[in-house]
Amino acid sequence: MQVTYNSDKRKLLSCLCHGAIFFSTTLFSIGIPIIISIISDDSVVKDNAKESINFHFNVWFWATVIGVPIGIISWITFGIGGILFFPIVALGFLIHWGLTIVALIHCLSNADEPFRYPFIFRLL
Question: 27-31, 48-52, 78-82: which range is least confident on average?
Answer without folding.
Answer: 78-82
